[in-house]
Structures are given as C-alpha cells and as structure tokens.
Design a protein that fits this description.
two-stranded antiparallel ribbon; elongated
Length: 158
C-alpha cells in the first residue's frame, strides 16, 4: 500500500479547501444581475481550467483551479518524459534498475493523471453547484421564519 507523500498531502489539502470555500467566502446581499446556467458553468470548467469559476465570478477559486490543474498537468508531463527516458535506457541496457525506474515514473504519471481528473471533476462540480446557488442569499433574505409567543410565522417578501 502506497503512502501519500508531501505533494499529495498538499494537493488533498488544497482540494478540501476548494470544496469548502463556498462556506468560507462571504457574499453580499444584492439582487442577481442575471441567471446563471449550471450546465454551462460545468462545461466551461471542464474545457478551460477555472472557466466555470470565472463564469460564476469566483475569481479566487478560478486561480486555485488553474494552479492545481497546471501543477497536476506539469507533473504528469514531467513524469511521462522521465518514464520515456528510462524506457529507452532499458531497451538499450536491459538493466533491472532502468526498468524499475521506468515503472516508478510511469506509476507517478498515472497518479498525476488521476489527480488531474479529480481536480477537473471537482472544479466542474463546484461551478455547477455555485451556478445553482448564485442568488441563494438574495432569495433567503426574502423568506423569514419567526417564533413569536408560542406561534410560528412565515413571511415571504416579493
């Protein structure tokens, strides 16, 4: 069983922060300017790193997503190059050490691609949910639930 190295722990921490960031960021109570389309937000997030977050006007999240996807893609490209180099060296030398290094870098590349896919999935999910909830605070301010002298009052402002 593999252990997480420091890079994977940091990546997991950033992913957790990305998921919990809607609860950490305060939003102003202002009327919505336009309706957001959740499918469009998710699609933009898949096509462009941080595209769905920019569409939802969550610029800090967009920067985090761009950085995470860039780091994962960069590591995948680096590990792929190293794996290719050691595979070429193994074909020439038939050394067990070269083959072990090839498989190690190949496994790292596969892990990097897994994390890239995970970040892409979570960023598109975040964009989808954020588009659904973009006017939540505005609508929440219109509904009031009051407890008053053993009675319950529900008021809704139009």
């Amino acid at each position: 069983m593999k252990r997480f190295n420091t890079g994977n722990k940091t990546l997991m921490l950033v992913i957790i922060l990305l998921i919990t960031s809607p609860f950490l960021m305060a939003r102003e109570l202002s009327p919505p300017l336009k309706k957001r389309i959740p499918i469009k937000a998710a699609g933009l997030s898949i096509l462009l790193p941080g595209g769905g977050q920019v569409y939802n006007q969550q610029y800090i999240k967009a920067g985090i997503v761009v950085a995470l996807e860039g780091i994962c893609a960069g590591y995948a490209i680096y590990h792929d190059g190293q794996a290719d180099d050691y595979l070429k060296a193994y074909k020439i030398s038939q050394s067990a050490q070269d083959y072990a290094l090839y498989t190690d870098f190949y496994d790292k590349k596969q892990s990097d691609l897994f994390w890239l896919g995970t970040v892409m999935f979570l960023s598109s999910l975040d964009a989808f949910v954020d588009a659904h909830l973009h006017n939540f605070d505005y609508n929440k301010a219109k509904v009031r639930l009051k407890f008053d002298n053993k009675s319950l009052q529900l008021s809704f402002r139009f």
